[in-house]
Amino acid sequence: MDTKNIMIVGVGGQGSLLASKLLGHLLLAQGYDVKVSEVHGMSQRGGSVVTYVRCGDRVSSPIIDKGEADFIVSFELLEAARWLEYLKPGGQIVTSTQQIDPMPVVTGAAQYPENLVEKMKEAGAKVDALDCLALAKQAGSSKAVNLVLMGRLSHYFGAPEQAWQEAIEAQVPPKFLELNKKAFELGKNA
Asked: Kind and range of the H or E element at 189?
């Protein structure tokens, strides 16, 4: 198998670390060599964060360079656009339509960009955008956006449903398991 590169991007505190651990567990269980990076960014301060997940027959580095990402999974619309140059031609973006104002917008120094989905498509990206926050709330918690996104990402991976369920069970604490499984299903079936 060729190496697959997945970037998980968002704003600190949204659950990108659990998403990357779940994805790493899933891919390891499928027999791939997997490298998962640390979280980069100001995660404790609500800043931009990114994790890299790379898998294949043999993966030597956890880092993804510009133009190499097969997938960008984004918790927030502007973060998807911010990392667009890392997407390879023909790559896929899976993003929540949620908008979180960055500090320049909060302070009034800038405005949140409009029509980001259209702009990313015009730049040549395939974009699968959905309201993951609404689906997470429907599942029972606004904090389940990460599992909604993983459910949506499952459309683009050849891993069997049972493998996803086992990865969720391995990474999610038992008291939150049913809620997170529901969030995964809502994302998958949206």
From this structure: helix 177-189
- Cα separation, 182 vs 159, in Å, equals 18
For the chain, how many structural domains are there in total? 1
Q: How many CB atoms neighbour CB 149 within 10 A?
A: 30
As a whole-number percent, the residues of the chain with pLDDT over 90 amount to: 82
3-state secondary structure at position 87: strand
| 153 — pLDDT class (breaks 50, 70, 90) | very high
Backbone angles phi, psi at 23, to 5 degrees: -65, -40
Contact 45, 12 (CB under 8 A): yes
Q: Containing domain of residue 17, as a range?
A: 4-189
Q: Which residue has the tokens 């990392």?
A: 83
pTM of the predicted protein model: 0.94
* Nearest CA-CA partner of 151 in 113, 79, 78, 94: 94
The span from the CA of 47 to the CA of 40, in Å, is: 10
Q: What is the CATH number of the domain that holds 81?
A: 3.40.920.10
User: Tens digits of per-residue pLDDT, 9-53?
Assistant: 998 778 888 999 999 999 999 999 999 997 666 655 567 889 999
Burial class of residue 167 in the structure, from the number of CB atoms within 10 Å of its CB (0-12 exposed, 13-18 middle, 19+ buried): buried
User: Collapsing DSSP states into helix, strand and coil, what is residue 32?
Assistant: coil
